[in-house]
Design brief:
By secondary structure, the protein is an alpha/beta fold. The protein has a domain of 135 residues: Rossmann fold (3-Layer(aba) Sandwich), CATH 3.40.50. The chain contains 5 helices and 6 strands, in the order H-E-H-E-E-E-H-E-H-E-H. A 6-stranded mixed beta sheet has the order 4-3-2-1-5-6. Helix 3 crosses helix 4. The longest helix has 27 residues. About 4% of the residues have low confidence.
């Protein structure tokens, strides 16, 4: 029995070590991308790096709309990405009034942004989008988008900004990088907890 317990402890320890070593890499989700209806930027403290990546995509003619859901801003793109014009924001009824939507306090910020993006895309009849954010955020964005956009008739691409460092090798991660990784896993866990609870009680 003692040997069996030692083997179980050893197996669990190995799994934990492997999990820790691979935890940064798992977060770095990305896909190839094609021209889409919109580029969607998720905000954060490193917004300049994200916006720079989004502008690169716009300048290459990769989308006809630029959506920044956190700021309730949607831009139409014309002249091959050279001109952007602001479109009306949405209120809770889905109209063009410049009012914010309301959400439960326990909703995670990125979840709210993606719900807003879904409403904007629905209003303008958009069926495809390129999500842009920080590298470590992309796995969470992909998971949340999969829950919010339940319809299968959407095409999504996930492009992390190239202008923000996101090391994957254990020896290259700084304490600040580890803090970002831990925070991401905490947010992923929290999202699934309250999402499952909301589904259970039938909260809409």
């Amino acid at each position: 029995m003692k040997l069996r317990k030692l083997m179980i402890i050893l197996a669990i320890s190995i799994l934990m070590i492997v999990g820790i070593f691979n935890s940064p890499r798992f977060l770095l989700y990305s896909t190839d991308h094609k021209k889409a209806d919109a580029v969607i930027i998720l905000v954060g403290p490193d917004f300049k790096a994200r916006k720079k990546e989004a502008n690169d995509l716009i300048n290459k003619g990769m989308a006809d709309f630029l959506i920044i859901p956190a700021y309730n801003k949607t831009y139409g793109i014309s002249n091959e990405g050279k001109e952007q014009y602001l479109l009306p924001a949405l209120d809770s009824s889905g109209s063009g009034k410049n009012n914010d939507l309301s959400f439960p306090k326990f909703y995670e910020d990125t979840h709210i942004e993606i719900i807003k993006a879904q409403k904007i895309m629905s209003r303008y009849g958009l069926k495809s989008a390129i999500f842009v954010s920080s590298p470590y955020h992309m796995r969470r964005i992909k998971l949340i988008a999969g829950k919010v956009f339940k319809s299968s008739n959407h095409n999504f691409y996930f492009v992390p900004t190239r202008y923000e460092k996101a090391p994957v090798k254990i020896g290259e991660l700084s304490s600040a990088d580890w803090k970002k990784v831990r925070r991401e896993y905490g947010k992923i866990i929290w999202f699934f907890i309250y999402y499952a609870w909301s589904e259970y009680i039938g909260f809409d």
